[in-house]
Amino acid sequence: MRLPLPVKKNFHMGRVLQVHSIKMAANSSTFSKSSSSAAGKQPAQSAEQVVATFQRMRQEQRSMASKAAELEMDINEHSLVIETLKEVDPSRKCYRLVGGVLVERTVKEVLPALENNKEQISKATESINIQMQAKGRELTEYRERYNIRLVGEGEGEGEGEGQGQSGASSRDSERGGSKSGAGVLVS
């Protein structure tokens, strides 16, 4: 038997997080025993811990995306400089900033180093993108494990809420049952 879920509001980094508490009728001791055995070696987490972990994982993914975007900009800058230097006489002087020190070199010395740097940055970007995809999969698994819903996620777009919820209920029924009401809502 499910009871209505009260909503607790937590303030976290200037945002309101709404955490739905899970209330169980009379069999709370049975629920805690079965949930601890189902969880295996991991201790049961409170709703606040689940939200904090989810927010931390989202922040890690955002920082990876930010770093990947920054490296893409560096690649574009390197490409622009390489294309410009290819049109210049190889014996011409050019200046390069190395560790905060401006160093005078020739174009033929700088061009291979720039191409090598661009290649290394491309490899680093690929590595970060792979890590970001893995973090996305981990985040999705975590959301499904704790039934985390983002605010506005369950609302229908354009066609109305009825179709959006029927689609969600059909997905739930395909997975073996409805989990509505027993989750965490994160803004």
From TrEMBL:
Pfam family, one: Prefoldin_2
One cellular-component annotation, GO: cytoplasm
UniProt keyword list: Chaperone
SUPFAM superfamilies the UniProt entry points to: Prefoldin
GO molecular function: protein folding chaperone; unfolded protein binding
Start and end residues of each stretch annotated as Disordered: 150-187
Domain of life: Eukaryota
KW Chaperone (keyword) present: yes
GO process terms (BP): protein folding
Function: Binds specifically to cytosolic chaperonin (c-CPN) and transfers target proteins to it. Binds to nascent polypeptide chain and promotes folding in an environment in which there are many competing pathways for nonnative proteins.
PANTHER family for this protein: PREFOLDIN SUBUNIT 2 (PTHR13303)
Family the UniProt entry places it in: Belongs to the prefoldin subunit beta family.
Subunit organization: Heterohexamer of two PFD-alpha type and four PFD-beta type subunits. Component of the PAQosome complex which is responsible for the biogenesis of several protein complexes and which consists of R2TP complex members RUVBL1, RUVBL2, RPAP3 and PIH1D1, URI complex members PFDN2, PFDN6, PDRG1, UXT and URI1 as well as ASDURF, POLR2E and DNAAF10/WDR92. Interacts with URI1; the interaction is phosphorylation-dependent and occurs in a growth-dependent manner.
Stated name of the protein: Prefoldin subunit 2
Gene designation: PFDN2
